[in-house]
Amino acid sequence: MRYKSKLRPGQILDGRYAIAGIIGSGGSSHVHLGEDLRLPGKRWAVKECVTENQDYGNVQAEAELLISLDHRRLPRVVDFFPPDEDGYSYLVMDYIEGLTLSRYMDSVGGKIPGETLLLFAKQLLEVLQYLHGHRPPIVYRDLKPSNIMLAPEKGLMLIDFGIARRHRGGAEEDTVKLGTVGFAAPEQYGSGESDHRSDLYGLGALLLYLATGGKYSVWAAGMERRLEGRLPDMLVPVLRRLLRPRPDDRYGSAEEVLRILEGVKEGSSAGIRQQEFARTALPAQGKAQTVTLMGTASGIGTTHTSLAAARLLGRFGPVAWVDYAPESPVYGRIRSLAEASGRPIPSEETEGPLDVNGIHCWKRPEDGTLEELAARYRYIVLDIGSGEYEGAGAEFARGDIPLLLASGADWRMEETLQWLRRSGWGPGSGWKIGLPLAGVHAADLLRRTLGVREVYALPFQPDPLAVGGNLESELRSMLAGILEKGSRRKKGRFFQRK
Known about the structure:
- Belongs to the protein kinase superfamily. NEK Ser/Thr protein kinase family. NIMA subfamily.
- The protein has helices at residues 56-67, 101-107, 114-132, 196-211, 223-226, 235-242, 254-261, 270-279, 302-313, 330-340, 371-374, 392-397, 413-423, 440-450, 470-478, 480-483, and strands at 12-13, 17-26, 29-36, 43-50, 77-81, 88-94, 99-100, 138-139, 148-151, 155-158, 165-166, 289-295, 319-323, 354-356, 359-363, 379-383, 401-405, 432-436, 455-458.
- The chain is of the alpha/beta class.
């Protein structure tokens, strides 16, 4: 960006938002991390925009547009400061912890599994369906990897509405030619007026770019051959139609595309996993091995990682996953999803587990002890959340393998170090540290800083219950101590009466 920011670290905006630093720049805006002085611990993204030629209408329009939206894949705007005398204005919106699709693609070397691309397509179609369902429809117009965030607990989110607009119809072509070359539909550059079908083209260009490791975003002869083994077969003709130059030749709506993709077989080995689970003998009394997971902050990815760990352990013996933080809503959400999908669930009065793909999910026992579960399972995984209750740290440390989840973002490194110092962590604590969505360099940096080896970069995996992949490989290393054949550890204090 050619304009300098007016905000500096330590500066306070409107007496409420303490600026911590820049987290992104591009086009005509900077994005800062803001800490809420009225709500301690709450962070916001503060978007600083510079308006050229006194064209304040676009900034005001973006603010009004975002304020009117309410969807889980869009950031909420909670405050807006109109342009000042220099044209600088500010939007305060949800801060999304994670990384852009650009960075994610780099972290996996441009090789994104086909089932992950299918999930990405469904999530983006979900939010496009919402936007296009407005009257008049809202056209995003700039789907590209840098405008899409991958959040550990939420999946994909659209983060930049700088050139979105309400489609009113009647114009022969767009007045202003906007969009990113390679991802924008032809009509955004003079061949007609953009509408909701322009976003469908953008979706196709984005998926093709991700599927080919960034080599292609426009359909060309021989593309089917280049996509062999990179996508589910049924997705290839869908991409081809999304990328038709003429809008009339594309699909008519995001809903139509989503309906087609719901029929694409993703492949599941849930039945095999269930058979493996049923064949495994129950452990001897009190021999359960306990894995405790806690995050340094909410939204880090603790629940996602805990379910992935439980899924892995379930292939070696009966496993119980426990929503261990008091008052946590996670078990209730899993129960609601299971009920909505038609799975059998225990009644509210029944003290029994919720079976999710062979993992037995439990609420925290009223007295906090796990003796009964220890007698039934070989492994117990405790999701302690962000540890915001009395005694959480001690419970976390009592696990056979305590796994701490922290942010891998460079600018949050000092925050992680401060958390470790406050917690009483030491190199001999036996804790293992996982950095969801972080690159290998972030794990290496934290290893060197702490002087320990047990720091792991945990790659993104859209389905925590999926088999295989890089996340499973890292978790195998982290859990090696209890996966070793014949491993026997003493009974932890979790199983003793308090």
